[in-house]
Amino acid sequence: MVNMGKRKRTAQDTNEAKTKKSKKDVVIPAVVSSDAPVERQTKWTNKQRTLIFSSRGISYRTRHLMLDLRNLMPHSKAEPKMDRKDKLFIINEICEMKNCNKCLYFEGKKKQDVYLWASNVPKGPSAKFLVENIHTMSELKLTGNCLKGSRPLLSFDKAFDSEPHWMLLKELFLQIFGVPNHHPKSQPFTDHVFTFSIQDNRIWFRNYQILAEDGSLAEIGPRFVLNPIRVFAGSFGGATLYQNPHYVSPNDYRRAMQRSKADKYSHRVEAKMSLQMRKPEVTYDLDPTDEVFHIITEKDVKKKK
């Protein structure tokens, strides 16, 4: 009879099990040679993935800005352009199919206005911005350069801790732009900084390269300004948590500019009419007795004939 009982675990088996567990953890040294291949951590707990895409009808400048953000964020995913007739809540289903829990959606209107939706899928919150002063990396031609796929530092202005809606946007940007640690497509280097600063009730985005240990920086790009419009409780909709009272839509701004040009013409016409009304019919008061001593010459006679 063959003994089919359980085999007792020896000390050698326990040591082998411990070594197998220890091999899963990779310890990255503080100084890594550029020639040596870097060992990757197979397990990464932060599963943040950001979907970056746009609607149809965007300008070439917005398209290049979107491509720059995809290159700077290794945890991002791409998607073909969405039809403008579709509803925004469809984006939640697209993110679910792409296995993404964050989204940056560029919406173009009238081929000149660009809106950016930043959302936490699927429960929210989400925020809508008007994108202004767009400058891409190829357009700026700045001297900075960083490693593709490197994890950036996120720097926020102190004003983000002043009001509740700025604090909410800060947390949203941390989760969207922050590259997860040990991400398979990321590099174990930190050589550039994303800065978010508040000025004139707008969020100014800049990207700088860290040149040396003393903290000297060189701007890489892209750069753009986000004018907040509304913050919603849900993803791409829901109850309004914050509405910007200082926001002026581009249509209202262009209408005001046209009215100012029309006012110049109306003021000019009114000035001409007032000049004609103030102009006297008789410029000089003549004395009728001056004609008594008028001498008639041959020219006067010829004129009468």
TrEMBL record:
Domain Brix as annotated: residue spans: 48-237
Principal cellular location given in the protein's record: nucleus
Region annotation (Disordered) ranges: 1-24
SUPFAM superfamilies documented for this protein: Class II aaRS ABD-related (SSF52954)
InterPro entries in alphabetical order: Brix (IPR007109), BRX1 (IPR026532)
Localization, UniProt: Nucleus, Nucleolus
Highest taxon above the source species: Eukaryota
Gene3D superfamilies assigned to the protein according to its UniProt record, in alphabetical order: Probable brix-domain ribosomal biogenesis protein
Entry keywords, A to Z: Nucleus, Ribosome biogenesis
Function: Required for biogenesis of the 60S ribosomal subunit.
Entry similarity comment: Belongs to the BRX1 family.
Protein's name in the database: Ribosome biogenesis protein BRX1 homolog
Organism of derivation: Aplysia californica
